[in-house]
Amino acid sequence: MHVPDGFINAPVSAVTGVVAAGAVAVSLRGARRELGGPSHAFSGGGEKTAPLAGLVAAFIFAVQMLNFPVAAGTSGHLLGGALAAILVGPYTGVLCVSVVLLMQGILFADGGLTALGVNITDMAITTTVVAYALFRGLVKVLPRTRRSITAASFVAALLSVPAAALVFTAIYALGGTTDVPITKVLTAMVGVHILIGIGEAVITALTVGAVIAVRPDLVYGARGLTAPLKLRVGGELVDAPAAAPAAARTRSTKKVWGIGIVTALVLAGFVSFYASASPDGLEKVAHDKGIDAKTKQHATSDSPLADYSVKDIGDARLAGGLAGVIGVGVTVVVGSGVFWAVRRRRAEPASERTPEAV
Q1: CB proximity list for 97: less than 8 A, separation 6 or greater
Q2: Domain 10-227+254-350 indexed as CATH 2.60.40.10
Q3: Which of 88, 231, 271, 323 shows the smallest number of beta carbons within 10 Å?
Q4: Is-contact 53 331, C-beta < 8 A?
Q5: Contact 156, 136 (CB under 8 A)
Q6: What is the pLDDT of residues 246-294, one digit of tens each?
Q7: Considering only CA atoms, which of 270, 279, 280 is closest in space to residue 328?
Q8: Residue 71 in 3-state DSSP?
Q9: Structural domain spans, the chain
């Protein structure tokens, strides 16, 4: 659903840019709490959360390269807002998807630079806010089990995608550069993105379920939701003593991080070659309805990595795979750097801050 330059006029693009900038600023403050320590995020504290957040951004980048068919001549891909929010928190999730969109726009000419505010508003803010609100509502009424968290992840992810389609339609109604009846755009966008939402839900639920199965302490959305272990004492069931916080903090995330980064590299560097070549939901609707009549050439269309292919490499599989590997590497480095900086800002004692920083 990457909106290119030319779909939305300059005034509305500017407004969405302001909205996106404000949301990112708010998310930076919120992420300081999510990354700030065991009382705010995972039992392992911010020192574990920051690199995992960078990994989540890299994983989303990789999976977004895997377009899957949803209808005749149409494909879809992960948006990632639900996955990021549930794994690392809603504020950090907005930043994760925003980092991915920035890397895609600058390095791979995917998503217009003048439309960056539109894309962040639609793909990062909308999906994360809608998904996490639904997720939290569901886990409050469902049994306190890991399966409930996975099921809530599925539903939240499913509905976040058509919600993003609705927001795009609203933005287009305000600033679309072509004269297309808004009802046609709405029907087409929501219809195809309900189907794409099913794929989003499957990917999100499988990923969240896999992490919960091995390290539930690393899933932000699972904090305090799993029912306590029961022991039978004197014929009665009682809650087992909770694990000591210090012991929980000693559990390393190196294995999870290693498996995650290898998975992302394999998906982007190898599996992506077999992704669907059909246009995604927005591209298909734009072509069929004439929304793309005034599309502008991307500012970085001559980038060495444009269209997810390394220039001057004749083998298409090698060129695409290498571009994917580079993208994962750059995204994890940039993302981890951002989250480390946010965490250090949170952890810095007030007495050591400059007057301007206090």
Answers
A1: 57, 60, 79, 80, 81, 84, 120, 123, 124, 127, 128
A2: no
A3: 231
A4: no
A5: no
A6: 444 456 788 889 999 999 999 999 999 999 999 999 999 999 999 999 9
A7: 270
A8: strand
A9: 10-227+254-350
